[in-house]
Input
Amino acid sequence: MDNELMDWDFAIKLNNACVHTPCTLCGETWQPPIGPIAVYQDDPVCDSCAFEYAPQLLLMVKRADIREMPAVVARDFLLEAKLTDEECKRIVNENWKGGDC
Output
């Protein structure tokens, strides 16, 4: 896999299909949940890869998914809080058992 993943190629997309699909980064087959998911270049990314490569994005996905806050508000919260990747990983670990959410 390419070690130079571009941050701006990660995004949040609303998934409305209940199908098994390969993760675009690791190739493992997984079933994305209905609702917000992380994508890389518009293709689904499993939670484990999102945790590894885009922890801030995964935190936004998880917060939006449990309806704590809309994704836009979650984004603004993260930008204002200036959370580092490590801080986001810690929050995800404490609340959603790491990348295996």
The mean pLDDT is 77. Residues 85-96 form the longest helix (12 residues). The helical segments are 47-53, 55-65, 71-81, 85-96. The two ends are 23 Å apart (CA to CA).
